[in-house]
Design goal:
Elements (H helix, E strand, L loop, with lengths): L1 E5 L6 H12 L3 E3 H11 L2 H11 L6 H12 L8 E4 L5 H10 L4 E6 L2 H10 E3 L6 E3 L23 H15 L1 H8 L3 E5 L4 H12 L1
Parallel strand pairs: 1-3, 1-4, 2-3, 4-7
Antiparallel strand pairs: 5-6
The protein binds BIS(adenosine)-5'-pentaphosphate and magnesium ion (MG).
Length: about 200
Amino acid sequence: MNIIIMGAPGSGKGTQAVMICKAHKIPHISTGDLLRKNIADGTELGKQAKTYMDAGKLVPDELVVALIEDRLKADDCKNGFLLDGFPRNKAQADVLGKIVKTDVALYLDTDLNKIAARMASRRVCPKCGYSTSAELAKDGKCKECGETLIIRDDDKLEVVENRLKVYAEQSAPLIEYYKAKGVLVTVNGNQTIDDVYADIEAALK
Ligand code: AP5
Ligand code: MG
């Protein structure tokens, strides 16, 4: 099953993606995580992407598309995959449509007032990409791999505001795009993590 997970910054995509991928044994492909890995490794792509990410802007399509095209060629994608954070605008969605078929586009419909609070307390693992909150990870360690959790550079309030603006302008129109293709599944993202996941699994069945 080829799945896309969509939703505003902080809507819970990464959190749900990890759970879905574990259950269905498919790779979790997050463009945000791949870009952050490139930044951590000091690659040329990472250097180019960092300026855009720190400002809450989209990284240019040609960089992200090349990254995804390359990743989707890997053997572990043969039996399906979950894309988290890609596509993020119509041009990226059109490219994706030419490479692979999308079976389900999951949209996490989460209210803006929930999002601000979630992003303020978000903690992420720089090693495996696991995303959690300060409340859930009181010891500050990743429960998947034990690494020390960090606060993301782009979770500062002014950057978050810009990310939400970019999302509304460029990414939100993809909800209608995938609805028109008949693959959109909308899930209420305002519930607890486990309830959101239960709704996703029910929809996938
Ligand atoms: P990316 O990393 O994709 O960030 P994003 O889309 O802004 O989304 P987030 O990762 O912030 O949120 P999320 O929905 O995954 O929420 P999470 O599960 O962590 O992209 C970052 C940047 O990279 C972009 O700004 C752009 O510059 C660049 N980029 C990436 N892809 C690109 C592309 N395709 N093209 C161009 N540029 C690209 O949850 C958030 C918090 O809430 C956590 O603390 C979590 O524990 C908590 N939480 C989650 N669910 C719940 C719940 N149900 N109840 C309570 N708390 C919850
Ligand atoms: Mg994420």
